[in-house]
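The instructor's notes for this session suggest beginning with a concrete chain rather than abstract definitions. Hand out the sequence below and ask the class to guess, before any prediction is shown, which regions might be ordered.
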Amino acid sequence: MSKPNWKLEKVATTTLALAGNPNSGKTTLFNAITGSRQHVGNYPGITVERKEGTINIKNARVKLIDLPGTYSLSAYSEEELVARNYLIDEKPDVVIDIIDATMLERHLYLTVQFLELGIPVILALNMMDDVKKQGLRIDVSQLSNLLKCPIVETIARTGKGKQELIEVALKHAQEQGNSWKPLKISYGSDIDLALDDMIEIILENEFMTERYPARWIALKFIENDREIISIGKQTSNVADQLLTIVEETKHHCLRTLNIPPEAIIADYRYGFINSILKQNIMIQEKSRHERIALTTKLDKLLVHRYLGPMIMIAVLYSMFQITFTFGEIPMGWLESFFGWISATVTTIVPEGLLQSLLVSGIIDGVGGVMGFVPLIAIMFLMISFLEDSGYMARVAYMLDRILRIFGLHGYSAMPFIISGGIAGGCAVPGVMATRTLKSPKEKLATLLTAPFMPCGAKLPVFLLLIAAFFSEYKAQMMFSITLLAWIMALLVAKLVRSTIIKGESTPFIMELPPYRLPTARGIFIHTWERTWQYIKKAGTVILAVSILLWAAMTFPGLPEQEINQFEDARQVLHSTISDSTELEQAIIKIDNRQGQSALRYSIAGKIGTSLEPLSQLAGFDWRTNIALVGGFAAKEVIVSTFGTAYSLGDVDPEAAETLSSRIAADKSWNKFTALAMIVFVLLYAPCVVTVVATAKESSWRWAIFALVFNTLLGFGIAVAIYQVGTKLFM
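After discussion, reveal the predicted structure:
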């Protein structure tokens, strides 16, 4: 009997790009399709988030790319540029355009641009449940015939239609064979004649045609696309010929129609869309008078001029109350777990540098940060719910009324919120979110003040100090810290907008998405992504910095002469004290003094001590100085540094197991020291990654300004709190 001939066949991968307007449900659908089979990174050389996921379906391997949300393929923002360049350079097999089916006209504008580029497209008509609630029906078959592309109905939040969507996309990719067939739209005689002349020149000279369709190049020149024109000028002098035609066309359009060519092109695109929609695509099955949309009902209450802000404050306060109520128990479990690991390692590993590194440097350092994971996760969970429900956009809408008073813009609210305006965000994506601000001055003012917000990195510090000194008012303290962050951001924004960044505020226009009930799957995926980033940071950056700080707090070690003095003191105790319990307590006190002396003698100790004459004005001792210097790298390092410092040398021989109780037992601390510390950490220099992100979004001059100004501001207020508090109330 012959042996079977086993052959390993390579499965081809089909690449599908998910694109669409912001708030179209694109990322929700991406999460529904890929689940945990995804990873997050950044596009090469740029700080725009890149999400990829892989799935296997019917013996086919599919790679999904979640492109940044964008309204068009013009290079007006970094997200639009990233999305466009990915499509052109990577050439995915199919683009799945996610459309909010309740707003077809607006969302089809991006679809038309995909079709003009020529890339194979299928439409995912999302939120079809909302369409039915509005008493509407969409003739999907007719719309598909008119646009000449497949269409699938979906409900992203429930995952309905996701299987069919991928199957249709795979079939379409196979039929198209990666061939691009650009859509040709007439833009009126003036524009069309110019396009024809430009296309002839482009084809004759093979100008950039290896990368772009000829008609698309001509359109981008007429639309004054800065990137395409810049690339064209670097390629050949053909760009100058095209720009001459563009200038003639622009002059003619302004003289005859008083409208620039870019506006004419946009009008004709919308005209093309309307000509399709007028062919009985949207069918009204119920009278609109029979129902008032849920969104309208809710907005009457939640965005009310007076009730809205009150409800918003109540929602934010409730978040903190829920976080502490439900987070303390699992937080206690984690603290006990790391305490058990520390005790176990202490028992197994012989006393010496290795034990000190493992226990004080790694376990107590990283463990101090990891202990806050339950609180962070619960806060992220609630933030995800607010975002997915559509309420977060209402928060930005309401805040515009206040922000304009301080020289900011309604769109500044989102960078603030993302940075931690609802505690638990991150300043890096918050800084990146300032790209939505069209005014350079409003963007710069937002960039400088967004890092004031209580990001997820600062939360462990606040939680540590609140647990140590304000345990009876945890929710109230966290709410007050968040409120203070907003107040300081607004006051500083007003200051800079009145002095170094003068200018008028621009009008605020924002699309408010309809309210939706978030799915458990979507919320948990978003929560896990953010929590995992926090955990990963603790296991990488924080671990590395903790080890470096442990080394700085351990070496060079006490001189032999001082070690001998402590040893002599122990020998005296052995000869003078007979009671074993009393002897043990006395020896612990000497061990404690030796640990403190060694810590002060270390490299970090000397740095901290050298800063004490200045830092004592705010109540900060040398140990706190070490932590704050480490905080320039990442704010979580402050907690890990305290964990290492108090582990290497306890201030009290009977100190409790938790780090917060050790700090509370330290006589150099009091409530006003803690308040000064909280305010300083809230305001002082952004972390290194945020500084780099700020430089990329503006310049290194402004990034360094933020680093220096924020630190001086934070220290000045911390000094005022400590000095006034201790003199008046102690």
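Then share the key points. The chain has three domains: 13-176, 189-284, 378-501+520-556+602-637+657-730. Strands lie at 13-20, 38-42, 49-57, 60-66, 94-100, 121-126, 136-138, 151-153, 282-284.
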